[in-house]
Amino acid sequence: MSDYFTIRWIDGCVRMIDQRRLPHEVCYLDFYDVAGVAGAIRDMVIRGAPAIGAAAGFGLALAAVKSEAVTCHDLWSDLQHAGETLMRSRPTAVNLTWAVNRILQKIHRTTWVEVSELRAEVIKEALAIAAEDAQINRQMAKYGLEVVPQKARIIHHCNTGSLATVDYGTALGVIRAAHENGRNVFVYVDETRPRLQGARLTAWELQQLGIPYTVIADGASGYFMRQGKIDLCFVGCDRVASNGDTANKIGTYNLALAAYAHGIPFYVVGPTSTVDLQLPSGEEIPIENRPASEITWVEGVRIAPAGADASNPAFDITPAQFITAIITEKGIAVPPYQESLARLCGVL
Ligand code: MRU
Asked: Of all helices (H) and strands (E), which one includes residue 323?
């Protein structure tokens, strides 16, 4: 366990570390209703696909607690509305929809007797989603260890650590497990423009874990690869289509292309809840466009001329052909992904 936590349910309130203020300040914000949680996801108080999935679960739990419904039927429709609000907050990570649907389906299957029982069921399922996430990450890390040699210089994009999950992390979880198992790992941390999740959050986490690292500009990855300084790439994922095409933080695609050109293995790490078997390819994954000001301003300082235009897609798609393997909590999927992902997700 880390000294800090990403998200917790505390008696009818959801507490989250405010990731916008890290690493300068460690502070927590409390949310008491679904609109607050949806706003926290949109504004990136909390971010990272598994963490926002857990937040969505707790958002529904808050909706259940706050609802004034006196019949189970009315509570059910309040929860459906709450689910829609949460799913609209960020479109790319499928974990949001996955968590909302998991809870709604669970209570749909429950025999409704009392409103209070239904409320309790929603809270129980939201807590289960959060608890399972922490276990799943450790399980993924075990599989991930299989591909990390005794000495490894690893490049990592965005933040996929404890902060992006309920605990431990996905891609960063594998790196952490390698370090904890005595492997000699060194991390090249992509700064990850424009929100700087690498420079701000990944560097902060690695520092606390005592894992050696250096922060590099996103555009420097090819330079270090050409110098022979990178052995492996590890990234997370926000949605994986059934053919293995993967949406992740903008810049992941460039990194994968550079790795491919240099013959460096490129691993995606993510739970099976991030796999969207409904989608045939990455073409169908919705990409979130965020405000232009995230590009033209850095930490409250304008860096582009007033009135400058800017485009800010928050994610890109890495085609499956550039991905060496996808590491999940159920095992490692290798090409052809259509088959291996379906098997790991239990539909083959
Ligand atoms: O915009 P963010 O910070 O939510 O983007 C996060 C990422 O792209 C992560 O790589 C992904 O969610 C996996 S986190 C375990």
From this structure: none
Atom of ligand 1 nearest to the CA of 47: 4
The rounded Å distance from CA 93 to ligand 1 centre is 8
Q: Compute the distance between CA of residue 68 and CA of residue 77 in angstroms, rounded to an integer.
A: 12
For the record, the structure tokens of 335 come out as 């090409």
C-alpha–C-alpha distance, residues 242 and 299, integer Å: 38
Atom of ligand 1 nearest to the CA of 235: 10
How far, CA to CA in Å, does 257 sit from each of 30, 186, 240, 289? 41, 22, 18, 22
What span, in angstroms and rounded, lies between the C-alpha atoms of 180 and 49?
A: 24
Whether the bond into 194 is cis, omega within 30 of 0: yes
Across the chain, the runs of DSSP E, i.e. the strands, are: 7-9, 14-17, 28-31, 151-156, 184-190, 213-216, 232-235, 239-241, 246-249, 266-269, 275-276, 297-298, 301-302, 315-318, 325-328, 331-333
CA angle 197–213–271, rounded 5-degree value: 55
Kindly tell me if the per-residue pLDDT of 1 is higher than 90: no
Distance 50 CA to ligand 1 centre (A): 8
Q: Which residues are marked as active site?
A: 238
Q: Give the residues surrounding ligand 1 with Cβ less than 6 Å away.
A: 47-50, 93, 158, 160, 164-165, 170, 197, 236-238, 248-249, 314
Mean pLDDT for all residues in the chain: 96
Q: How far is the CA of 161 from the centre of ligand 1 (A)?
A: 10
Tens of pLDDT along 284-342? Answer: 999 999 999 999 999 899 999 999 999 999 999 999 999 999 999 999 999 999 999 99
Measured in angstroms, how far is the CA atom of residue 111 from the centroid of ligand 1? 37
- The preferred substitution site among 158, 163, 204, 318 for testing ligand 1, maximizing ligand atoms within 8 Å of CB, is 158
Please state, in angstroms and rounded to a whole number, the distance separating the CA atoms of residues 239 and 280: 12
Torsion angle in degrees (nearest 10) through CA of 345, 159, 125, 243: -20
Atom of ligand 1 nearest to the CA of 157: 10
